[in-house]
Design brief:
Elements: H1 6-17, H2 21-33, E1 44-45, H3 57-66, H4 75-89, E2 96-98, H5 102-112, E3 118-123, H6 128-135, E4 139-144, H7 153-159, E5 164-170, H8 182-192, E6 197-201, H9 211-214, H10 217-221, E7 226-231, E8 244-247, H11 250-258, H12 269-280, H13 282-305, E9 317-321, H14 326-335, E10 338-339, E11 350-354, H15 358-372
Parallel strand pairs: 1-10, 3-4, 3-5, 5-6, 6-7
Antiparallel strand pairs: 2-8, 7-8, 9-11
Helix pairs in contact: 1-13, 3-12, 4-12, 5-6, 13-15
Length: 375
């Protein structure tokens, strides 16, 4: 069981306090405003791991400015965003594939080698890539999590064979939020990528400690057989704009571009402008991650008080063993005004709860305390 670290919590308080003025003002407005009268009757939505703080004020301003350009196609904005990502990642523009690419990537990889290719992944997990591969003849190979509820790297490596089309990892993992040891993961990926393509989804990595040490972007830069995926849907607060990007080896990016993955007309100007502005406001990201870490530690403290088993999540959600069938627990939470979403078999007596605004989290913690203290 994770131990609540008071020193770390105090450090996060300091980080949050040191955030930009605009960020603090935005947080204050959200906290003080609470729930609007129009939304008062709706459940608190803590089910999809969204960033409830939304995009940075500078990003909202960029979105508003772009309204005047909606009569234009996205060619110019697309090029600026790709150039901005390439500069951030220190990678040639030709290796940047823009978009929420996991589903089309699964389809592409499955079709490239013909039916029957195997896609290895952790179970339970986020399966968008696996599902899309299966729709065109790919075969998903699930590997259970290890005893620490992490990606079981040894078991995954043992599954890699001649039919393996790709290994898909999410780090931090979803739904457990566990993050792999940086050195261990790097060694694993270097070894396995010699035998099969390794795709690492880093959607939640900004919420974890030591982002720079944990990302595997450097392996792509070094020419390894590795794809790293990032999204603007989580820490940047752009879930409604459906935009992300992949860092892709040259040979694979060339094939993907032949399939039209780099067509600017696939993207709308507003999403591209928002993503570009998001990359320029690093202070806001730091403010969001510090705020999420504070709330996450409040969850850890509650679960320790209740003597409830939980994972050491490094993402913007928590995962706990309720001891109650998920359908029953989620229904009870919904009656208390909190939507926590679906189950993650085989963890039928566990629940994943996204981290929302402070007042939303307080309501959710009160509901969990009431339900679990009666066990």
């Amino acid at each position: 069981m994770t131990q609540f670290d008071r020193r770390e919590w105090l450090q996060m308080v300091g980080l949050a306090a040191g955030s930009s003025i605009a960020s603090r003002q935005l947080f204050a407005e959200m906290i003080q405003g609470g729930r609007s009268s129009a939304a008062a009757h709706k459940p608190i939505r803590l089910s999809l791991n969204e960033n409830p703080y939304g995009p940075a004020p500078s990003v909202i301003a960029a979105i508003q400015r772009e309204f005047a350009n909606l009569c234009r196609y996205t060619d110019d904005g697309y090029g600026r965003l790709v150039a901005r990502i390439a500069a951030r990642e220190q990678m040639p523009q030709e290796q940047i594939i823009l978009g929420e690419i996991l589903e089309p990537l699964g389809t592409h990889l499955s079709l490239q080698g013909g039916r029957g290719g195997e896609f290895i992944y952790s179970d339970p997990g986020y399966t968008a890539l696996i599902d899309s591969a299966a729709e065109v003849g790919g075969i998903g190979i699930p590997v259970p999590l290890d005893r620490s509820m992490q990606n079981d790297l040894a078991a995954i490596a043992a599954k890699v064979g001649g039919r393996t089309r790709a290994v898909f990892l999410v780090n931090p993992h979803n739904p457990t939020g566990t993050v792999l040891d940086a050195g261990q993961l790097r060694s694993f990926v270097r070894d396995v990528s010699k035998r099969a393509l390794v795709i690492v989804d880093e959607a939640y990595l900004e919420f974890s400690n030591q982002y720079a040490e944990r990302t595997l972007a450097d392996l792509v830069r070094a020419g390894e057989n590795v794809i790293v995926f990032r999204t603007f849907a989580k820490v940047y607060g752009l879930a409604g704009m459906d935009i992300g990007y992949g860092l892709v080896p040259k040979n694979i990016s060339q094939l993907m571009k032949k399939q039209g993955f780099d067509n600017p007309h696939l993207f709308n100007r507003v999403a591209v402008a928002a993503a570009t502005a998001s990359l320029e406001d690093t202070g806001y990201v730091a403010a969001v991650t510090a705020k999420v870490a504070l709330e996450r530690n409040l969850w850890f403290r509650l679960l320790q008080d209740l003597k409830v088993k939980f994972t050491e999540s490094s993402a913007n959600f928590v995962f706990m063993e309720t001891g109650i069938p998920h359908g029953e627990f989620s229904a009870a939470m919904l009656k208390k005004g909190v939507d926590i979403g679906r189950a993650f078999p085989p963890y039928e007596r566990w629940a994943r709860i996204s981290i929302g605004l402070p007042h939303e989290n307080a309501s959710a913690r009160a509901a969990v305390r009431d339900l679990l203290s009666k066990r």
